[in-house]
Each structure stands twice: as C-alpha cells, then as structure tokens.
Amino acid sequence: PAGTVPRRRPPRSDMGRAVTLLLLLLALLAAPARAEGGAAAEEVKIEVLHLPEACSPKSKKGDLLNAHYDGFLASDGSKFYCSRTQNEGHPKWFVLGVGQVIKGLDIAMMSMCPGEKRKVIIPPSLAYGQQGYAQGKIPPNATLIFEIELYAVNKGPRSVEAFNQIDKDSDKKLSELEISQYLKEEFARDGKKRHPSVHDEILADIFKKNDHDGDGFISAKEYNVYQHDEL
C-alpha cells in the first residue's frame, strides 16, 4: 500500500484489565464457530513476507492475537479495509479460530509468530461468498488479499487457564454462581460504575448462548475449550 506507516512496538503481554474483561465476555457470549461446507476444493494461499529469527509462540486456535491488516480486492487491487484507520490506529485484538474474523483469516493466521508478516489470498468461499458484503464494499464472489503484521500472541479467554480460574470447585463445569462471582470480581477490578442490571443481563446471555443442554451448568465442551488443551 502507498504511504509508510510507522512500525508500532509490540504490545506488552500484560494487557489492561478492561481489554481482558471485554474480550473474555465477547468470547463467552460468542457461539462456537462452525465449519463451512463446500470449501474443501479452495485454499488460502500464504506468502511469508518477513519471519523473525525468534519465532515463539506460534499462534493456534483459541489464542488472543494482536495484529494490523490491510484488505484488498484481488480483482482491481483496491483497498477496502485498513485496521490502522480504525480505533485510533490501534492494532486489532481478536481470538483466533472462533469466527471473530472471516474463516479465511482464521486459517491464514494459524502458526504465525509475533513480528511475522504475511500476504494471503482468500477465495470467496472462505470470505464473503456469493452474497458479498455491501457495507464493506466487497462484491459477490470476491477473492480477497490481506497484508498482515502480527504483534502479539497470548493465551485466549477460552483457554483451560480461563476455565479453571472460573471453576472454583474444580468440578469441570461452571455454575451460575461461579460465573456470577467471576463477573463481580472482574467488574470490581475494572473499576467502572455499572447498573446492577448489566451484571444480570450478561450472566443471562452467557447461559443462553453456552448452556446448550439447559442443565444450568456450562461444561468444558460447552465452554469450547480447544482440542489442544486438556482439563
């Protein structure tokens, strides 16, 4: 892309508690990502533009990533997205592999290390498909190109560590009381004043979207602890 953007220093791993809380709640409220059918014949093409000598840790499903990326239409090279123009230019935080970004980016950013840069080509079936995304100025059946720079790889909120932190009695399932207490503790650390109804609404949403069998508990499977982790 035209123009030079000053390189940002990689964010420190000890993120602000407000950011951690926001991402935890986002991940708890998000439904587990579903695999899309009919895309087996098409793949994401990855070109590594820069690989640092020290490549650790490598990103995996469930990790919390911090990255900048620019998106272009393969058809004419026009830019449709630039993370540097969003959120006052701060790199984006998201959990890898859970559908917080398009499936092609979830695939493209696997096994990536902090400081690495990649150029990736994503077919329509792993992007916005036949529908396109009018709001993002992406036409139907568009092949997309992204230039990505990854800054940080951290343990994500769906990790075993996060599950065990909430699971006070270590019975491998999360009760309404345990999650309620965890929310209260995080709200207290965050320090922001909230109406009591906010706590109740978030708690109700968490169980509505995660307690699939309706037994009043969120199991490790329902919590979606990833396959690389073991309880």
From TrEMBL:
<dbReference type="InterPro" id="IPR011992">
    <property type="entry name" value="EF-hand-dom_pair"/>
</dbReference>
<keyword id="KW-0106">Calcium</keyword>
<keyword id="KW-0256">Endoplasmic reticulum</keyword>
<dbReference type="GO" id="GO:0005783">
    <property type="term" value="C:endoplasmic reticulum"/>
</dbReference>
<dbReference type="InterPro" id="IPR046357">
    <property type="entry name" value="PPIase_dom_sf"/>
</dbReference>
<feature type="domain" description="EF-hand">
    <location>
        <begin position="198"/>
        <end position="231"/>
    </location>
</feature>
<keyword id="KW-0732">Signal</keyword>
<dbReference type="Pfam" id="PF13202">
    <property type="entry name" value="EF-hand_5"/>
</dbReference>
<dbReference type="GO" id="GO:0005509">
    <property type="term" value="F:calcium ion binding"/>
</dbReference>
<dbReference type="InterPro" id="IPR001179">
    <property type="entry name" value="PPIase_FKBP_dom"/>
</dbReference>
<dbReference type="Pfam" id="PF00254">
    <property type="entry name" value="FKBP_C"/>
</dbReference>
<keyword id="KW-0325">Glycoprotein</keyword>
<dbReference type="InterPro" id="IPR052273">
    <property type="entry name" value="PPIase_FKBP"/>
</dbReference>
<feature type="domain" description="PPIase FKBP-type">
    <location>
        <begin position="62"/>
        <end position="154"/>
    </location>
</feature>
<protein>
    <recommendedName>
        <fullName>peptidylprolyl isomerase</fullName>
        <ecNumber>5.2.1.8</ecNumber>
    </recommendedName>
</protein>
<dbReference type="GO" id="GO:0003755">
    <property type="term" value="F:peptidyl-prolyl cis-trans isomerase activity"/>
</dbReference>
<dbReference type="InterPro" id="IPR018247">
    <property type="entry name" value="EF_Hand_1_Ca_BS"/>
</dbReference>
<keyword id="KW-0677">Repeat</keyword>
<keyword id="KW-0413">Isomerase</keyword>
<dbReference type="InterPro" id="IPR002048">
    <property type="entry name" value="EF_hand_dom"/>
</dbReference>
<keyword id="KW-0697">Rotamase</keyword>
<keyword id="KW-0479">Metal-binding</keyword>
<feature type="domain" description="EF-hand">
    <location>
        <begin position="154"/>
        <end position="189"/>
    </location>
</feature>
<feature type="signal peptide">
    <location>
        <begin position="1"/>
        <end position="35"/>
    </location>
</feature>
